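PROTEIN DATA CARD
Card holder: DNA primase
Chain length: 654
Origin: Koleobacter methoxysyntrophicus
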Amino acid sequence: MKIKIMIDNIKYNNKPQGKEIGSIVKRLSNNKNITKLSVEELANKIIEGYTVKPAICGRKQKEWQEQQVFMIDIDKGLTIEKAIERSREINIIPAFIYTSFSHTEDNHKFRLVFISDEVITNINEALAIQHVLNSLFSADEHCKNLNRIYFGGRSIVYESYSSVINVREILNKYSDIWYNERLGKKSDYNNRYKNNIYYLSRKNPYKQTNDNNNIKYINISCTKKPHNNNKYNNNISINIVGEKTLDDYYNIKAIKDKNIQYLKSVLNVKKEIILQNEQELYDYIKKEINLIELLNIDNFNNFRCIIHNDNNPSAGIIQDDDGTYIYHCFGCGFKGNIIHVVQALTNEKTYKVIEFIKEIYNIKVKKTDWQKEQIAILEANKQMLLNGDFEKYYPNVYKLIKRYIPQLITMIDIAIMNVRDENFTDNEGNIVFFISNSELANLLNSKSNKRINQRNVLFAFLKLLKKLDKDEIPEKDLKKALEIQKKYKHNNIVNYFSIGDYDIYRMKESEKRATMWYAKNMSMTGLSYEGIYRTFGKEIANELYPQYKKKVIKTEEGYKEIDRTTSKASDERTNDIIKIIFHLINSKRYATEKEVIEILQSKYGKILTQVQLKRSLQEILYIYNLKRIRCNKEIKEQLGITSKGYPFIIVKND
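Structure generated from the sequence above:
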């Protein structure tokens, strides 16, 4: 059998050093050094002093193409004799073993070379094989990268050139080792591997037999696996040699039968989990409960789908960026979290699925009287929005928000799901919660994060919710938000909100704000920090944009934080608008917004001019003693306006 491998064209009698290593790495990044050799020829090349790279790969691991040779480096702890003994115990036999340049009789340093029974073209499989071999032989952890090079050596101390390793069997049998690596947990062979025995029958309600012909040769291993309480406990894992069928997945059968007692037993669930609210419950179920362990899937990367009749392995389980376990089958297209998977197996309604999972894992949501009171307040707010009270008693507020009520109700629902204890409140004692604009847009099936944010600003202006400054965010929440901001390099932390009681006092203030909005001819187009600042002043602007009230500038002394006002570019556009308005008033005694936009659109563009005019108009009217009025027949005759209809015009406030 000829195998493909990368071999350097320069041999060394001693371990290469410094610049020599750099030159070797460079040469072995070139496809010109790819060659095909028999296993024995490869062994001879290595002891002649030639460096090899087992993988067909460039300088970086992402340039990996394929691999059939796997090597591990032993430089402490294990002797050559012990390594050979271990390989026979687990029936993973190297093709040969050679000593490194620094090997001595007192300190064994050597490398095991394995040949796979097939060429590996999937990098994840190659990584898994490399890590499993490293773990089983307690090899140097630095050998896990596939782009690694291995120097030549002194002599061959063991040879079995015809031996190959069964890749599929290794990936199935030792999938838990790779699983722990994916979770960042160290797997130790000495803790994992104990012995192989003949095992007659599991004491299992789903598989009982008195037929001794059904004896199977299995591997019992002590392994550290994540459990329901997110701790790593030593548990017995039983892996039957050979491929599992769906009939062997006892946990899945127990889920289908809703056998809570059996699942509690095999999952070793003992501790009671107490949570404060529904959001904590959903997060715990999706992120803390190990879906792989619940289903008892051996090879979680690639297995037969449990949702449909899958003849070829087409399903896998991963953890996404926020820690949620996701089941995905490329055969039938099913994709979902633990709730979706259990629902597919049980055919139960969602609320029953959640209760089923809660019972398995001893999860309870316990609310205090204070929490119940806060939820009642928020539920009453929702009823006011839906029962016609807003439209009847607060018409100006209703007129402003009627199109956006679904978003406000969603915000209240999020608040309800996040009611915690009294430590998580704002300065007024209202419950605190957070959600990003993108998450909220996704919930509302909106493509515009900007519009979502503008509506929340409108709600805040009307005092129907509050956007929190950093000093009002609970300490634990703020710490977490700052960590996320730093991790993802965001300019600001995620938005934190609070919602109070829509009582008569708050609604009186809300109606007053709505009246102000209409009096200033404010619109959603002009809704921004600058628009609020120019129209209603600095205090209200800072209230609605608490994270935007400061900005950092560079000075001769360094960077300095100052109060935000308006930008230089915005001021320039505003000054041009003022000039155009007065030019029109001086020439014909009035100006229209349409005329201002038409004149300046060639300089700034139509949309930017429209937005700037909306943001600056109230400030211009106030400072320059102007007013915006709607024409009537008399005014049109006085000013000689010949256009159709009765447009708004800007005139001097004489």
